[in-house]
Amino acid sequence: MSASSSPEPTFGKKDGMTYAPKAAKPEPVCGPGEFVFAAAALDHGHIYGQTNGLLEAGGTLKWVYDPDPDKVKAFCRTFPQAKAAPSLETILNDPEVRLVAAAAIPSERCALGLRVMDSGKDYFTDKTPFTTLEQLAAARRKAAETGRKYMVYYSERLHVESAIYAGRLIDEGAIGRVVQVLGTGPHRLGKSRPDWFFRKEQYGGILCDIGSHQIEQFLYYTGCKDARVASSKVGNYRNPQHPELEDFGDATLIGDNGATGYFRVDWLTPDGLGTWGDGRTIILGTDGYIELRKYIDVAREKSGDHVYLVNHEGEYHFNVSGQIGYPFFGELILDCLNRTEHAMTQEHAFKAAELCLIAQRDAERVQ
Fold first, then answer.
1. H or E segment at 157?
2. Can you name the residues that pair with 123 across neighbouring β-strands?
3. Closest CA to 354 of 40, 106, 139
């Protein structure tokens, strides 16, 4: 593939709260009405990305529910095909609905998921899927009991074309065996965050929250089934007015196949950056390395999805924006219809969550 220009990706608000990329060429995997889903719990703007991804893959959006009518009205302006449900029970009792997509307050995501699974439907939650290890254990039990899916929107890989392309390069052997993944996940704090965002009991801590993206990518790119957290740290350097907020965190992991990982996440993105965060990933292999500049190429191009590859054959730059698409959503729909696990295994989704909870629990506090 050669580098090419492409339109600037859609990032929603500058603080990233409404992250809803649109595929250049949507690829439906089913016809109208064959996979009906609903949206509920609109506490985080990622619900727009979850919904749009399912629609582009052929899903049919029937209902939306949230106790806040203003959130429902805003959602319906973007997705007018959705009918406002009078209650969550309306969705749970509708036999046509196969899956419920939701972006509740993080501490409430598990309880909602258990209800959805008990109703015989699959559940698709925003990250982070849990804020405690007890919630994770409950979800594992419920998934085994019901056979329903508890899928997670790890958007920084699943809804980023450069991240998807990197996985394909690795599968093709472009850099040999992956031995280390280094990730940065900076975010802009902005001025419009809800109150729950600053309460640790509700958001879970920075490693539990946005750190979950980084750990999921480490497991995926290295092919690890398990890992241990060697060290982790959290701190609040810039926001003393919010004492429960952690605006910095990092962790080091060692995978069960010998690969290692390090990541840093923060809420310290300066206002001068042209998007909400300069997310980057460097994947080191035995025969080369890949760098992803996911959302911007600083001081060069406002567009994202830049992939840099260096191996024994040479140096390469690919701009893959608008060229790869987002196959996860179609694979998820087919998995729900066929009861398969091609989009993401349940254990992978749970393992990424488990490791971020352990990293958060064991983190050293720095100032």
1. helix 155-158
2. 100, 150
3. 139
